[in-house]
Design a protein that fits this description.
The complex is a heterodimer of chains A (about 675) and B (about 300). With about 675 residues, chain A is mainly α. Chain A has helices at about 1-10, 25-45, 50-60, 65-95, 105-140, 150-170, 195-225, 235-270, 280-315, 320-335, 350-380, 390-410, 415-420, 425-455, 460-485, 500-530, 575-580, 600-615, 620-640, 650-670; strands at about 590-595, 645. Chain A is about 70% helix and about 0% strand. Chain A has a two-stranded antiparallel ribbon. The longest helix of chain A is centred in the N-terminal third of the chain and has 36 residues, at about 105-140. Chain B is an alpha+beta fold. Chain B has two domains: about 35-120; about 130-285, Immunoglobulin-like. In chain B, helix 2 runs antiparallel to helix 3. The N and C termini of chain B lie far apart (about 85 Å). Classes of the chains: A mainly alpha (about 675), B alpha+beta (about 300). The interface between A and B is large, with 100 and 104 residues.
Chain lengths: ~675, ~300
């Protein structure tokens, strides 16, 4: 009997039927995931699109397509994370006094942790890498990133991390220890289920993908810029990506090591972070924030880059203070490694340590403030066209400034003692990350959408999206500042009725509902824009009167991006070309592009099996998958012909066909 | 006409929001802004001072945003200058490196001084002796030990008005945070670590406190009350505890330490000697009763 049990454990690890969802809300979540998946598979099968999907998308090495896949995943995860948020606020509006709401404490805490994990790693990071993939090579005048195969592999590792987090909804559970799962709570003794393991391995796998992407974009910027494009002639978005990716390269290894140590504690009984046995949880908190604080800037720097492009384009002016913008980025990159302790002033470090980190935190506000003033003065003496990306910019400045002030307050340790871990903090970082990063993603999507898909998004619906999101966001988060002052901590699944918090939680819930309507309009906007795409074609390739090289290409940008690689003499190269009448010239050259490769998908699949094996302690599976990944990499490196050449004549033919089609559209719609 | 209507609608909505919020806030206590202790007072004042400093940045940003967006909008071409070749201005850029720099320098000085002045570990100077209270965070309740009075209580602590109190804080479960917003603020409670929070109440009242760091399923219900009272009432409170008849022996403590929520306020007339210290130290010695099989080697040391 024991032998059978041991055999079953070796074969299946901790997997068993009892790991399936146990109550109706959990079952609802699992059903949504499973049905959603079946719906997607069914639709593709019905439309007979599998071959097309495999050839054109899943195996692609074209950064533009990889970017689109990132953004699709990020948007779906925005829906998931938003659904989580709606559940959390519903619970908090109901669970007062003698009522305990709709969720159990443990389930509530799993949802809180999943919300944070998903929104940071799979929404904010997903949108960011998506937009970088779409825009960066085009802006640099390059046809691809430095390592196309690695780029596709990064995406699939990101995808697998996402799949593991959502898999935990169907079988097993997710961490209930918060999005950074501090030990000792996340140690085996206090969290014996697979929840923390799902969290660890999802982030490990996605994190390796992020690190590879970071290196990839770093090399792309340093080595693949068009001839003539010195660093100081790069578009500001490229500069901000350079800053952000340097942070990725230095910060993500810390995350990997920290999670690995926690995994060792949980699997082989080491004592890095346990309460006893010489372990020290404070070490974990330091390490995770030594990654975590740069991570904030990893997200926000590319967003700053987006704002720099949007403000300059829609004000029809050069970006104000280019050089000081570059210095501000450099300052932020350096300083972002010197402030991590402000996430735990209340841990009991001495006044000297707290004061140092408090001051460094206030100092980092200076370069950020400089950037805001430079954007404002880009508007000065401009011709501002208030299309939706520019509207998002206005909301960004308002919300980011309010959130930033809250941040400067919290940088003073003695103030932080009173608001740390409270809803005041929650309001602050949502204002920074949603106002700063997510709004930038929305602006970027509207702005670059025609470049990628060849038609514009519906502007009127875009405005509705903007107002519902903007107003909803204020209504959802301003009450949290007050709740924080009233003593409400984060992650509360219940509170006493006598505190009088309920009305504010209900107002916050109404805000979430308004955001929900905004998201519904986003989906409608996308659907309607696709439906009416022929009326919304961008025939010029330059729908916004753009300034940088991506607008020199036609819309949708062909897979080879440029018929001939541009030569750069100016910061706003395309603007300068338009001024001097050079922008319309057509030239062709031979083009070398990477071939599709299914091996990235294979690595992704194996990484998924590896992750599942580690989560469920099915070690033979984990080991085999790991060996499989190594073998795949060896096979890949044996491939001597990963690229193909397209002659200038072929390019010319493709271009003529495209131009003919454009003329037909034009004739048809006039 | 339509424009006027919109403006009025905006004014009415704004007035309504301000009115309702004002009415709501008057009805409720806002612990961080209405402190009842000397440390809380200073932290509140610091918060207000830094907020006013921040206004120096917010006002110009919002003004410039509003003015530029309005003036340089596309529809206003006739009245606004357009300088597409303007790329920067050394003077202007210097101003917004330097001015925020000065504000941050002021904040830095304030940060440095206030961090030392309000260091939770620093004993408060007073003619009166300091009352020592030891706090142990358990899953999911708070144990307060008064070593000099040799009593203990669960989820409630009494302190005398206008007398300095030194809370020593540790945890015998996971890490969490001890937060009494009306008195002093937050301090992490961690196993194997002993932190401190010095405070002094200057108002009489019952002040709610919270566990402010997620600590498992009972986290939200892990609340406590600090009651500040006159010297006489405090003596009575101690006396009542001393006559409660229930002793906090090692065995009772072990039972109390087991995870539970909704524990009623309980008093103990006697406390196992050195309970707080042994609780802190047991995580630092190799012989750990709750460690699993993996530490078999360590126990032999």
């Amino acid at each position: 009997m024991i032998a059978i049990h041991q055999f079953a454990f070796a074969l299946l690890g901790k997997l068993s039927w009892s790991q399936l969802p146990q109550n109706n809300i959990e079952r609802g979540g699992a059903a949504a995931i499973v049905l959603g998946l079946l719906l997607v598979i069914g639709t593709i099968t019905y439309l007979k699109r599998w071959r097309w999907l495999w050839r054109e998308w899943l195996t692609t090495q074209d950064p533009k397509r990889i970017g689109v896949m990132y953004i699709v995943v990020a948007f779906v995860m925005l829906l998931r994370g938003g659904g989580d948020a709606a559940l959390l606020r519903t619970q908090q509006a109901l669970s007062v006094g003698s009522s305990s709401g709709i969720l159990s404490s443990n389930h509530f805490q799993q949802i809180v942790s999943a919300h944070g994990t998903i929104m940071i790693f799979f929404v904010a990071m997903g949108f960011m890498f998506g937009i970088i993939n779409l825009v960066l090579p085009l802006q640099l005048g390059a046809r691809d990133v430095a390592f196309p195969f690695m780029n596709a592999t990064s995406f699939w590792l990101f995808f697998v991390g996402m799949a593991l987090v959502n898999g935990s909804l169907v079988i097993g559970n997710f961490t209930a220890a918060g999005w950074l799962s501090y030990p000792p709570l996340s140690e085996l003794k206090f969290s014996p289920t697979v929840g923390v393991d799902y969290w660890i391995w999802a982030l490990q796998i996605a994190g390796v993908g992020s690190l590879l992407s970071g290196i990839n974009f770093l090399v792309t910027i340093l080595k693949m810029r068009a001839p003539g494009m010195t660093l100081m002639k790069m578009p500001m978005f490229a500069w901000s990506v350079l800053g952000s990716m340097s942070l990725v390269a230095f910060a993500f290894p810390m995350l990997t090591v920290t999670l690995a140590l926690l995994a060792l504690d949980r699997t082989i009984g080491t004592h890095f972070f346990t309460s006893g046995g010489g372990g020290n949880a404070m070490m974990y908190v330091n390490l995770i924030w030594a990654w975590g604080h740069p991570e904030v800037y990893i997200l926000v720097l590319p967003a700053f880059g987006v704002w720099s492009e949007v403000v300059a384009t829609f004000s029809r002016k050069h970006l104000f203070g280019y050089t000081s913008m570059v210095w501000a980025i450099a300052a932020i990159v350096l300083l972002s490694f010197t402030v991590w302790l402000h996430h735990f002033f209340t841990m009991g470090a001495g006044a000297d340590v707290n004061a140092f980190f408090g001051i460094m935190t206030a100092v980092i506000a200076v370069p950020t403030g400089v950037k805001i003033f430079n954007w404002l003065f880009t508007m000065y003496r401009g011709r501002i066209s208030f299309k939706t990306p520019m509207l998002w910019f206005i909301a960004f400045v308002v919300i980011f400034t309010i959130g930033g002030v809250a941040g400067v307050l919290m940088s003073v340790p003695a103030i932080d003692y009173q608001v740390h871990n409270s809803l005041f903090l929650v309001a602050h970082f949502h204002m920074m990350i949603v106002g700063g990063v997510v709004f930038a993603d929305f602006a970027a999507l509207t702005y670059w959408f025609p470049k990628i898909f060849g038609f514009r998004l519906h502007e009127g619906l875009g405005r509705l999206v903007y107002w519902f999101w903007g107003v909803g966001f204020i209504v959802a988060f301003v009450p949290l500042y007050i709740l924080g002052f009233m003593g409400a901590t984060r992650r509360l699944d219940h509170y006493s009725a006598s505190l009088g918090w309920q009305p504010l939680f209900i107002v916050a819930g109404v805000g979430v509902a308004l955001i929900g309507i905004g998201v519904a309009f986003q989906l409608l906007q996308l659907a309607l824009s696709i439906w009416q795409r022929n009326q919304r074609r961008d025939l010029t390739g330059d729908p916004w009167n753009g300034r940088t090289l991506e607008w020199a290409t036609p819309s949708p940008v062909p897979f080879y991006s440029f018929t001939k690689l541009p030569v750069v003499t100016d910061r706003d190269q395309f603007w300068a070309d338009k001024e001097s009448g050079k922008a319309t010239r057509q030239e062709y050259e031979d083009i070398v592009l990477p071939k599709n490769s299914s091996l990235s998908v294979v690595i992704g699949g194996l990484a998924f099996l590896f992750g599942a094996g580690m989560v469920w302690h099915i070690y033979w599976l984990a080991l085999l998958s790991l060996l499989g990944i190594v073998a795949t990499l060896i096979i890949r490196s044996m491939n001597d012909e990963p690229e193909y050449r397209m002659s200038a004549r072929t390019v010319e033919k493709l271009e003529h066909a495209r131009l003919r089609q454009l003329k037909e559209y034009e004739a048809y719609h006039q | 006409m339509k424009k006027h209507l919109r403006v009025w609608l905006g004014v009415v909505i704004a007035a309504l929001v301000v009115g309702v919020s004002g009415w709501y806030l008057r009805l409720h206590t806002i612990p961080v802004l209405q402190p009842a202790g000397v440390i809380g007072d200073k932290e509140r004042n610091l918060l207000i001072f830094c907020s006013l400093l921040a206004v120096l940045i917010v006002v110009p940003v919002f003004t410039l945003l509003g003015v530029f967006a309005w003036k340089y909008r596309e529809g206003n071409q006739r009245y606004a200058k357009y300088s597409p070749e303007l790329t920067g201005n050394r003077m202007a850029e210097t101003i917004w490196w330097v001015v925020p720099g000065i504000i941050v320098a002021i904040i830095s000085v304030v940060t440095w001084q206030s961090t030392y002045a309000l260091d939770p570990f620093k004993q408060l100077s007073s003619a009166k002796p300091t009352l020592h209270v030891q706090v142990i965070a358990l899953d999911w309740k708070w144990l307060f030990i008064y070593p000099n009075q040799n009593i203990a209580s669960v989820n409630e602590a009494a302190i005398p008005l206008n007398q300095p109190v030194d809370f020593e804080i540790t945890s015998d479960a996971v890490m969490t945070s001890f937060w009494d917003p009306q008195l002093a603020g937050q301090m992490y409670a961690m196993p194997g670590m002993s932190a401190q929070q010095n405070l002094e109440a200057n108002k009489i009242g019952s002040f709610p406190g919270w566990a402010a760091n997620i600590s498992g399923s009972g986290f939200a219900r892990m609340t406590f009350t600090i009651r500040s009272m006159s010297k006489d009432n405090f003596a009575k409170w101690i006396g009542a505890a001393q006559h409660s008849g229930s002793k906090l022996t090692a065995a009772r403590y072990a039972a109390l330490a087991k995870p539970s929520t909704g524990n009623p306020v309980t008093y103990y007339s006697w406390v196992q000697p050195q309970l707080y210290n042994t609780t802190v130290l047991k995580y630092m010695t190799p012989k750990l009763p709750q460690l699993g099989k993996h530490t078999a080697g360590a126990t032999r040391l």
